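_Per-residue structure_
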Amino acid sequence: MNHPVVVNERDGTRFAQAPEDTLLRAALRAGVGLSYECNSGGCGGCKFELLHGEVETLWPDAPGLGERDRRRGRHLACQCRALGDVSIKAASAAEYVPPVPPRRRRAVLTGTTDLTHDLREFRFSADGPAEFLPGQFAMLDLPGLGASRAYSLANTPNATGEWHFQIRRVAQGQGTALLFDNLRPGMEVGLDGPYGVAYLRPGSPRDLVCVAGGSGLAPMISIARGAAAAGMLGSRRLHFFYGAREPRDVCGEAMLAALDGFGERIVYSPVVSAAGVDGWAGATGFVHACVADSLPAPLASYEFYFAGPPPMTQALQEMLMVDHRVPFEQIHFDRFF
């Protein structure tokens, strides 16, 4: 069977698109580094211009495209499939070439654990090793849902095929409603991954800072676990900040406490944003402000990883780059909406 061929006129790369893939997934599967972040239609990082040919748009109203983009005829590579051979003009860079090529597999739910009132860990098992980098995410194809959902991994790569996700229930969210209410141990889902560019950089000599909010806990826990497993914390420290709205949302400490060096080289700092909370003796306010106030050295001397709600990630990015001149190559995050 002949698959459509996609040519990126900007850099001359070309790749074939399998029927079940979007342009973006086909490119990454072929080792072509098209620009992207969320792989879900929200961030706009994979915009492209269609020069020749025809594409099918899976989510016409995806928020990653503004009205100006639509008037200019731009598309999202994560939401388009080629209907024949096409030529496009898309941003690409070596940093987007997948260090672990993504692939599709079937995964079985083996168990769940409630972490808070609205945050639950889902553990899946699949044939073959679970190959990914700490901090990456995968796309889940859930029964009865027409589109994939992106969820970050909380565990570390392993030979036994374990894929663990920590997912927050979203009000009126179709994906999390299926996961929380309908999915039972023994049921199968489609799992495609890994994806994401905000993965652990083991070669950095700097102390690490992980900042998580909500279900952004998962990739930050994965990075902390990965750093410990790689022996990175023998001489370095890891500062882990968790931003919660209320005390009942605070979590993550028990997972970090299981790692060597907790309380010495691993420092956990929860922050609650709701004002005037009775019975809470910890830090209050916005987590990005706590990061700036708490770290003992100039912020430009750290390696930063963060994940959470868009206002949190935006505030952190602006604070680090504008207020503290942290080099961009020391800041790692994927935007989710």
About this structure: The chain has three domains: 5-96, 103-195, 207-332.
